[in-house]
Amino acid sequence: MKIMNPATGQVLREIQDDTPDTVREKVERARIAQRRWATLPLDVRLDIMRGFLRILQERTEELAALLTSEMGKPITQARNELKGMPERVTFFIDNTATAIADEVVLRLISGRDGTQPPDLEERIKYEPLGVVVNISAWNYPYFVGSNVWIPALLTGNAVIYKPSEFATLSGLAIADMMHSAGVPDDIFATVAGDGSVGASLLDADIDAIFFTGSYATGQKIAEAAARKLIKVQLELGGKDPVYICEDVDVDAAAASMAEGAFYNAGQSCCAVERIYVREEISEEFIAKLTDRVDALVVGDPTHDETFLGPLARAQQLDVLEQQVAEAVSKGARLLRGGRRADGAGNYFAPAVLADVTGEMSIMQEESFGPVIGVQVVKDDEEAIECMNDTEFGLTAGVYTKDRKRAESILSHVNAGTAYWNCCDRVSPRLPWTGRGHSGMGSTLSLVGIRAFTQPKAYHLRRA
Length: 463
Description:
The protein is of the alpha/beta class. The protein has helices spanning 20-39, 42-58, 60-71, 75-83, 85-100, 141-154, 168-181, 195-203, 215-228, 250-262, 282-294, 316-329, 380-387, 403-410, 445-450, and strands at 2-4, 11-14, 103-108, 120-128, 131-135, 158-162, 188-190, 208-212, 231-235, 241-244, 274-278, 333-336, 351-354, 371-377, 392-393, 395-399, 417-420, 432-433, 435-436, 439-440, 442-443, 453-461.
């Protein structure tokens, strides 16, 4: 497998793919090692994760440069991802004990002094799933991956980690740091390769699979997991809408939308993918949005001033060009960009389209790139109808000065995450969950920690 630099098209490194045989061997070793790992005191696993975090912080600059080289994320944004890791890892370290603590739900004690053991106790214990497979994403390999492998390891599971083929070098660096911190090689094992390697993982003796990627692939994984009757959790695509109300600071809202739609070249699960704006301010908003997009620095991702680098995947250029062309053919106005750049690298000029409608693919199908469509709506009711007009349900946002109005609108939108006057934001304290074609299950928060456990019910009666 050749690891390519998407900014230059040059080969960075060649990696030996895993095979069905090596996958099976790694899973078998993980199965044996997991039994001992689960018996370690939680404090030992917590200390190991603290060590991992220290190593990661020491290597931030090196890791950021590596990430930029293999998937094109601008270096300042790569640093931001790594600098955001301590908050996330620390949340898991600080809250795992609480999340998986035994729960006593009933205690019946005879006698009046209450000092003797209970006659009957009902208790819930949280046990690890076993061998957990994580097929992860390339757009935020540290954020997205750590949502799985940190809580999975802390709760006593073994992890078979398949980084995306577009972030393999970062995945190997993560494994190196894990092992240096004290995680046994067989407890955190990395497999490398394309989708065929991921498919071989589904054939192995595993207990759960956590996948981040497209709806089409997620559907296949869910079907395979159903046949094995193992746990499956899916973080899939999004077509995240934002509604701009008439009472906003238009310039501030336009600035927020430019960043929310084009950060990481629009390659974020919760990137703003469609905008609905009230007709009273639509002309001013669109003008200010295009001005903000004009100011974005497109170029070499290794330069600190670059905001928008190349796309990680060359094939996505075709998708974006097709979406733009179809929208224009149906009456949309292309105000900026909308085509691949000349020369080397997977560059796409950031596109802003006005006069879009709901039947256009750019407002229905995930773009995952630097394009945004703006549709005018006449009132809140129309905005709600439009925001619910896709199969996806990841995030949705409302910009208005009126919090009560925003919460009322968001309560009618089918999305796992709701934003008021912000967007493209993830917190370790809140569950990250999708609806419909955006996935199933939750990571992050206490809910996301317990996702890596299975409850056991204890009925304890004194003889």
